What does this fold into?
Amino acid sequence: MYALVDVNNMYCSVERSFDPSLDDKPLVVVGNNDRSIIARSQEVKSLGTIKMGAPLHMVLDEIEAHQIQVRSANFTLYGDTSSRLMSLLTRFVEDVEVYSIDEAFLLVEDYESLYPSYQGLGTAIRDTVLQCLRLPVCIGFGATKTLAKVANRIAKKSPDLAGVCVLDSEENVANALSSFDIDDLWGVGGRSARKLRDNGIETALQLRQVNDEWISKVMTVNGLRLVHELRGLPCKMIEVNAPAKKTIISAPSFPGVIPDLEMINDALTNHLSRACEKLRKQNSLCGAITIFLYTNKFRRTLGRPDLASKQYSASRTVELPHPTSSTPELLGYALEALKSIFAFGYHFKKVGIILSDLVPADYRQKGVFVEGPNEQLIKLAGVVDKLNYRYGKSTIRLASQMKDPEWVMKQEWLSKRYTTRWDDILVAK
It folds into this structure.
């Protein structure tokens, strides 16, 4: 039996967990540079007038009319709260798969002596998470991960279930799937849903009853696995150890536009440093680096709002002579690539970096004309990571990085980092 634990409105719930004055008030969280809405509380969802991804400046009247609270995305706080949640779940079961920042699958076999029923286990998890983290969660139980996903969605949509839905019998599963829309099914995208509807399949129950050979042709082996999971045959196992990322991207937008190469160099250096920290954290080396640069396609010409400003975008990929995770070594390639694609006379909105061709950290292969990576630089980067982790981000940084750059993200309504910064810790009176 599997369970899926999912935090309701994660970002909004975390903001409320540290700021009780936000309880029961409509709340939205805006993303990078306070540009678009990336999370809504249930009160805002119920209004039905503010959609996910809506530009903030387009809904200011709605926000003022309904006195909606706004917070800038605080990913440091959300990430740390998520880690605490996942750690808390291991109190109940041994096998926990972190599926996303607000979701986790649990393998709940052989716990009958501790929890006589799945309903009781789900209620215990909900109460504990609410007590320790002040986060509301819903929990779905099913014989497979797909059925647990279905149960979790039903738990969220049905207030009378008190946040816990258990699909532990054929009758319960059939009733749940008979009214479960095919578009809401985990693993069914928009194109696949249209194909299924064209063939008269509207619900998850109808999909469960299709012929294996037919579904393999329509949705490949992934569709066949999905159908088997709906029949209660596990095809997707719990992955306790998350697989390493195959690419690492860092590309936040500038709050304004920047024409200056020196400032873009600084932003690129900062992005690369963050990406390299992630690279070393998962014990990988990178074999290729891509730099891209582009202007704001929505920008208009000054004094001519009817005329779009001139646009430019370019990218360049560099294959390294040997994989490495050293920030200074990678920075040399990155700055040369940026210099080769930069064009004067344009106002740029974003510079980004992609690290790809990732291999394990112990990978070494000398070429005919090149040696391997600089081992001393790799060790030095590891020491810098430890110092920055202990004393704060960017305590040790490259000399070319500005201390207080002008291009940093706009975060007008940013909450404090209550759990990761001593100066922001809550004080009990």
Observations:
- The mean pLDDT is 90.
- The first strand starts at residue 2 and ends at 7.
- The chain has 13 helices and 15 strands.
